[in-house]
From TrEMBL:
Protein name per the record: Histidine kinase/HSP90-like ATPase domain-containing protein
Gene Ontology MF term list: protein serine/threonine kinase activity
InterPro entries attached to this UniProt entry: Anti-sigma-factor_SerPK, HATPase_C_sf, HATPase_dom
Highest taxon of the lineage: Bacteria
Location of the Histidine kinase/HSP90-like ATPase domain: 15-143
Alphabetical list of SUPFAM superfamilies matching this protein: ATPase domain of HSP90 chaperone/DNA topoisomerase II/histidine kinase (SSF55874)
Any matching Pfam family: HATPase_c_2
Keywords: Kinase, Serine/threonine-protein kinase, Transferase
Protein's organism: Endozoicomonas montiporae
Length: 147
């Protein structure tokens, strides 16, 4: 993560109920920016989506595992990283693919799964994913701040 003027780091247990803490934290940091309310809502959505993915997919909804969130802020950019030590995202999934069409006549097409990464890729300015040799998965994303 780049060097930032302000940085907030927190670690939560891998329980979906803890995403509220992450959402409130990012809103607090966003209050220090020029982001509009719509942009703040979108940024919160993206962060919660990635934290949910770590909990649901990396850890299989099993509590007791760490999820680290770092939010960095400088004059021009907000940088966010979400880290876990669970199952990594397969390469074919991380690439931005168009989600399947939703067909109102076919309820099986209504499933939300698989749309989150596409949304994050569309709403954030940069997105990256890496797994270290030690098995740490790091999802990073950034949003430019308007002036």
């Amino acid at each position: 993560m780049p060097v930032c003027d302000h940085q907030l780091s927190l670690q939560i247990d891998s329980q979906l109920s803890n995403t509220t803490l992450v959402a409130m934290a990012v809103r607090g940091v966003c209050a220090m920016t020029t982001l509009s309310p719509v942009e703040i809502n979108r940024l919160e959505l993206c962060l919660v989506e990635i934290v949910n993915n770590a909990i649901e997919h990396a850890y299989g909804n099993e509590p007791g595992h760490p999820v680290e969130v770092c939010i960095g802020l400088d004059k021009t950019t907000m940088n966010i990283s979400v880290s876990d030590w669970g199952a990594s995202i397969p390469g074919n999934v991380i690439k931005d693919q168009e989600p399947e069409e939703i067909n109102p006549d076919h309820p099986e097409s209504w499933l939300c799964s698989g749309r989150g990464l596409h949304i994050v890729n569309k709403l954030m300015d940069t997105v990256d994913y890496d797994t270290t040799e030690e098995g740490k998965n790091i999802f990073t994303m950034s949003k430019a701040l308007r002036h």
